[in-house]
Amino acid sequence: MSDTMRSVAGASNRQQGDHPSGDNRFDLVDKHLKRGRYAQDQLIETLHVAQDVFGFLSEDILVYVARALKLPPSMVYGVATFYELFTFDPPGDHSCTVCTGTACFVKGADEIVASVSNTYNVPAGKTAEDNSLTLKTARCLGSCSLAPVVVFDGDVLSHQTSESTVSLVGAALGGDA
Ligand code: FES
């Protein structure tokens, strides 16, 4: 059993960034699960949230969702593979997901997407040709009070601006040079 699988129980009482798996992106998935009261009919919506947060659906993520919703992993895998909207390919070396839900949109999320896209020549929803950066947009990540929210390389970042996000991405890409 992986660490992420063990961490399903008791997820609701933790602070963001303190997830037992060591990956605070699971906190965003947990928030969605809790809001939906762990109802099994939330499966597809939960997979959307998980893909928005992680950029793709790994086997570990599918198992995590299956356990949280008390569904057979084979069923979750079957549902995920049935819909073309889901992707199982990992993102580039760095991953930047900008939430473009309503709260983030009205606070400039679209400008953040455009700035990162123009600065680093990566269309939204795509990975750079050299695989250095994947830029994605997501629907509401469930942390609207932190808008605009950006998830960069697994870190959930609050109150972002075009400048702060472009700078962050540049530092990461530059660090690889
Ligand atoms: S709209 Fe971005 S977190 Fe809710």
Query: How confident overall, as mean pLDDT?
Result: 87
Helix content range of the residues, please?
Answer: 40-55%
Q: In what range is the share of β-strand residues?
A: 5-15%
Low-confidence parts, pLDDT < 50 over ≥5 residues? 1-16
- Across the major sheet, the strand order is 2-3-1-4-5
CATH topology of the largest domain: Glutaredoxin
Number of DSSP-assigned strands: 5
**Number of continuous helical runs:** 8
**Outline type:** globular
Q: From the 3D coordinates, which CATH architecture of the largest domain would you assign?
A: 3-Layer(aba) Sandwich
Count of domain modules = 2
Largest sheet: 5 strands, mixed
Q: Measured on Cα atoms, how large is the radius of gyration?
A: 16 Å
What structural category characterises the helix and strand content?
Answer: alpha+beta
Can you identify the CATH superfamily of the largest domain?
A: Glutaredoxin
CATH class type of the largest domain: Alpha Beta
Q: How do the helices and strands follow one another from N- to C-terminus?
A: HHHHHEHHEEEEH
What's the end-to-end separation, in Å?
A: 37 Å
Question: What's the multimeric state?
Answer: single chain
Write a structural description.
The protein has a 5-stranded mixed sheet, with helices on both faces. It has 177 residues and is of the alpha+beta class. The radius of gyration is 16 Å and the shape is globular. The longest helix is centred in the last third of the chain and has 15 residues, at 162-176. The model is unreliable at 1-16 (pLDDT under 50). The chain folds into 2 domains: 3-82; 94-176, Glutaredoxin. The chain is built from 8 helices and 5 strands; from the N terminus they run αααααβααββββα. It has helices at 3-6, 25-35, 43-54, 59-68, 73-82, 102-106, 109-120, 162-176, and strands at residues 94-99, 126-127, 133-138, 150-152, 155-157. Helix 7 (109-120) packs parallel to helix 8 (162-176). The structure holds FE2/S2 (inorganic) cluster. Residues 99, 101-104, 140-144, 147, 149 line the site of FE2/S2 (inorganic) cluster.
